[in-house]
């Protein structure tokens, strides 16, 4: 019986590790808050990516403030630079000039991204982000959307995502682990 356990352990040890998901993320080209065209590779450092809209009354500002704190804590406590990036799902209203003012409320290194409706549709499809325009009367509207935080490596590749229920410390720990695993080729 002991030999069976040994064979099983050996068999498990030779199995390849689970591959990173390849169905999330991918190349994109958008416009940043300075009016410059950027891609997923433009930042050269790991990033936290969040999709939302500037006129969101509560959820987006709360989540963006959380991202800024996580980024700051990772830099101060771990020496890890992680760029916070906000991608609008409301390109009609969220122009580069408006994004510039908005993201600076959260942190000076925060990046705001927008694009044409087609470009936004492509990136949200790539990240499996749900969003929908919801009329609210008098020609106004809100945006319904998912609230997922994505971690990208320094090449703009998806590593991991986090739901709203995780606290900041847990996200920080998972970011450190995911980046270390990616650097080690795991």
Description:
With 186 residues, the chain is an alpha+beta fold. Helices cover 37% and strands 24% of the residues. It has five helices and nine strands. It has a seven-stranded mixed beta sheet, sandwiched between helices. Strand 8 (149-152) and strand 9 form a beta hairpin. Helix 2 (59-78) packs across helix 5 (168-183). Residues 1-19 have low confidence and may be disordered.
Radius of gyration in whole Å, from Cα?
19 Å
From the N-terminal CA to the C-terminal CA, the straight-line distance is 32 Å
Mean pLDDT over all positions = 89
The strands making up the biggest β-sheet line up spatially as 2-1-5-4-3-8-9
Helix-residue proportion: 25-40%
Helix and strand run: HEEEHEHEHEEEEH
Strand content: 15-25%
Give me the count of strands. Answer: 9
Structural class call reads alpha+beta
The low-confidence parts are: 1-19
Describe the global form: globular
- Number of DSSP helices? 5
Biggest sheet layout: 7 strands, mixed
In short:
The chain has 186 residues and is of the alpha+beta class. It has helices at residues 2-14, 59-78, 96-104, 117-126, 168-183, and strands spanning 29-32, 37-39, 47-52, 83-88, 111-114, 131-137, 140-145, 149-152, 158-162.
Task: Summarize the helices and strands and which ones pair or pack.
Elements: H1 2-14, E1 29-32, E2 37-39, E3 47-52, H2 59-78, E4 83-88, H3 96-104, E5 111-114, H4 117-126, E6 131-137, E7 140-145, E8 149-152, E9 158-162, H5 168-183
Question: Key features?
Answer:
alpha+beta; seven-stranded mixed sheet; 5 helices; 9 strands; 24% strand; globular
């Amino acid at each position: 019986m002991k030999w069976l356990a040994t064979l099983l352990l050996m068999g498990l040890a030779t199995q390849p590790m689970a591959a990173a998901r390849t169905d999330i993320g991918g190349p994109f080209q958008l416009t940043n808050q300075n009016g410059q065209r950027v891609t997923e590779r433009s930042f050269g450092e790991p990033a936290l990516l969040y999709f939302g809209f500037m006129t969101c009354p509560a959820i987006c500002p709360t989540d963006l403030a959380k991202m800024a704190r996580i980024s700051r804590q990772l830099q101060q406590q771990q020496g890890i630079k992680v760029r916070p990036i906000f991608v609008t799902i409301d390109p009609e209203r969220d122009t580069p000039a408006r994004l510039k003012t908005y993201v600076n409320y959260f942190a000076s290194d925060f990046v705001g991204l927008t694009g044409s409706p087609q470009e936004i549709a492509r990136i949200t499809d790539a990240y499996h982000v749900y969003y929908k325009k919801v009329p609210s009367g008098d020609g106004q509207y809100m945006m319904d959307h998912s609230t997922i935080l994505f971690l990208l490596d320094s090449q703009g590749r998806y590593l991991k995502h986090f739901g709203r229920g995780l606290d900041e410390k847990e996200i920080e720990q998972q970011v450190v682990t995911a980046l270390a695993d990616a650097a080690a080729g795991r």
